[in-house]
Every structure is written in C-alpha cells, then in structure tokens.
Design brief:
The protein is an alpha+beta fold and 230 residues long. The protein has a domain of 150 residues. The protein is built from three helices and twelve strands; from the N terminus they run βββββββββββαβαα. The strands form three sheets. A seven-stranded mixed beta barrel has the order 2-3-4-5-6-11-12. A two-stranded antiparallel sheet has the order 7-10. A two-stranded antiparallel ribbon has the order 8-9. Helix 2 runs antiparallel to helix 3. The chain is elongated and about 60 Å long. The relative contact order is 0.20.
C-alpha cells in the first residue's frame, strides 16, 4: 500500500536547532503535497512550481513553499528553488501516458479526457505456440536485455531535489532548514499529474544520458512551463 508521506530525516542538534534533511511528497495535479513531524506535531507542506529552467544541464523548478503549522497556521515563501540532483526509475508496467500533441508554443496542448488514451506496449515476442519459451532474450543496441521498464518503456518513479535555503522561523518550523532534500514520489492519480509524469520521464531520460540531449530537454522544459502556467 502506498504510504502518503514517510517520516522525514532529522539530524542531530546543531546549536539550539536540529536539522531537517529530507521531506517526502506526492504529486497531485502540479502540487507536491506532503507532511513531516516535529516533536510529535504534524506539519503539512506543499510546493507549487511556477517555472522550470535548465542551468548547467540541471533542472530547476521555482515556486512557492507553503507550510501549515499547528500553532501559526499557514505560512509561505515564494521563489523557492528545487534543483534536480537524481532520479529513480519506476518498476512494473509502464503507466498509461496521455498523448501530448506537438505544435508551437502557441498551439501545443495536451489531450483532453475525451481523446484517446494509449498504453505503452510491452516488449513483444516472436514465439509461436508450441515453440520453446526459453529463447534468447531481446537486447538493445548496448547488449542490455529489453524488459518492461527499460528503453521507451522506462519511466521515472522518484525525483530527488535539493531545495534552496529555507528560514525555519519564517515558515514556523523549529528546525534548521538550510539544506533540505525534497523526495518527489510520482504515482499520479489525476490527468494533470499524469501529463507531468510523462514530461518528467522524458526530461530525465534526456538529462541523464551521455551526452545530454539538449534539444529534447529544452522541449520538455518548455512544455513544463506551459503546463505550470495553464
């Protein structure tokens, strides 16, 4: 069963404050939603990216960080940057991917729920009934076996971001937030999150190959910005 928000990692005291090292969130629409506990009290947070950019081959999301505190209510900070530092591939069958229509920045759009939704096909087999089922596996151009989570069937499951320095007192959190990692779990349950999942999967594939596919990564960043502003 998917746990919504695992406990954050809290370090030892530094002076009078303890460090918060990582927080965990899920993507709902375009909002990263999560929760962490401090001294037996729950703090709800959300990160809403407003823009995406590439800096030295790294994806940076910039947006609003909001924290709902038990005593002080809701507080927020704008202009928080989340720099992508790593990604983890998803396991299992490739998720349903809504088809993104190509076009210019003025005319490109995502498909609506009434348009056809296609499931990425799994690796096919040439085996015919009655033949030996233990033939040689298919391999890619590098000699790696083709399975349901590789190549065009691969997808990202978790994205790891390093957040810009946050002020705990501003957000009402009694912790040192100077170096927090945001772990974004991608398990979409709505159409917008599915579209963003598709874009993040394509973007990470372009960024984490050698050399970086600059054209593909720039195209996906443009699509992300269009989605964030829609």
């Amino acid at each position: 069963m998917l746990t919504e928000n695992p406990s954050p990692k809290v370090g030892r005291s530094t002076g009078n404050q303890r460090k918060l090292h990582s927080i965990h969130g899920l993507l709902r629409g375009r909002v990263v939603d999560g929760q962490f506990d401090v001294r037996d009290q729950s703090y709800r947070f959300s990160f809403v990216p407003a823009s995406a950019s590439l800096v030295e081959g790294k994806l940076i999301l910039s947006g609003r960080m909001t924290v709902h505190t038990p005593q002080l209510g809701t507080r927020f900070v704008d202009g928080v940057e989340a720099r992508l530092v790593a990604g983890q591939g998803g396991m299992g069958a490739a998720p349903v991917r809504r088809q993104l229509l190509s076009g210019t920045a003025q005319t490109s759009q995502t498909s609506t729920s009434s348009q056809k939704i296609e499931q990425e096909k799994g690796p096919e087999t040439d085996l015919q009934p009655g033949l030996q089922p233990f033939g040689s596996p298919r391999v890619d151009e590098l000699g790696r076996p083709v399975i349901e989570s590789t190549g065009p069937l691969s997808f990202v499951g978790v994205l790891y971001f390093s957040l810009s320095t946050l002020d705990g007192s501003t957000l009402g959190v009694p912790l040192d937030l100077s170096k927090v990692q945001l772990n974004l779990r991608l398990a979409p349950t709505d159409d917008l999150a599915r579209d963003l999942h598709f874009m993040f999967s394509n973007l990470t594939a372009a960024l984490f190959q050698t050399p970086i596919d600059e054209r593909a990564s720039n195209e996906q960043v443009q699509e992300l910005n269009r989605m964030f502003k829609s």
